Amino acid sequence: MSLIQSLKLVMSRPHPAARPFLLASGAGALLGRALPFRATKLAGTACGLFFGFCLYFFRDPKRVVPADTHAVVAPADGHVVSVEKVAPPPELDMGTMPVWRIATFLSVLDVHVNRMPAACTVTRVAYHAGQFLNASLDKASELNERNALRLTLPDGRNMAVVQIAGLIARRILCDAEEGMKYEKGERFGLIRFGSRTDLYLPEGVEPLVEVGQTMTGGETVMARL
């Protein structure tokens, strides 16, 4: 990645979910620096640093979605921690036949905006309250707080995306509702401060990525339909 591309990524417009954090930390920074007390100035400096972190964490860069209609793109940035065949989440009523699941772990340094892997209709949204284990662990898929979406493709096949909260994350944001239609690469949610996103491919579709590979949400091709 060139220096100019890196700067564009860091300086991209923040996601709307950042607003309360930016307003609070920005106000704290201004107030702390304005008051003539050492303690408040230190607090103001801390708020200023947090303001800068939020600008970076909630960045929402534009992505170039592949024109290939058969491509399934990464629903999140991060690196692949697992590629294995497992049964889809039971709350999505997609049967018990094992399909390929690609798990992507997002550190606090990754872009946390989630994107649709393919053109689809959301036919099920199922939230599950749970624990906050390290999202890179395999058991996080079953034990952690999660929000699962069943996506029905134009040809009738189903796939799924699951947003999973991590060790630090405490809030999953999802704008998708049942019946909504999305184009490939469209934004549908975000997970705050470290997380994991699992992609369940349709039956018979093989993954094109491996463990350790770095994903760019909305751009990296994970499979072909």
UniProtKB/TrEMBL annotation:
Any Gene Ontology CC annotation: plasma membrane
Cofactor: pyruvate
Pathway(s) this gene product operates in, as recorded in its UniProt entry: Phospholipid metabolism; phosphatidylethanolamine biosynthesis; phosphatidylethanolamine from CDP-diacylglycerol: step 2/2
GO molecular function, one term: phosphatidylserine decarboxylase activity
Site feature (Cleavage (non-hydrolytic)) residues: G194, S195
Active site: S195 (schiff-base intermediate with substrate)
Enzyme class: lyase
Cell compartment(s), UniProt: Cell membrane
Documented EC number(s): 4.1.1.65
Physiological role: Catalyzes the formation of phosphatidylethanolamine (PtdEtn) from phosphatidylserine (PtdSer).
Listed NCBIfam families: PRK05305.1-2, PRK05305.1-3
Family: Belongs to the phosphatidylserine decarboxylase family. PSD-A subfamily.
Name of this chain's protein: Phosphatidylserine decarboxylase proenzyme
Species per Swiss-Prot/TrEMBL record: Novacetimonas hansenii (Komagataeibacter hansenii)
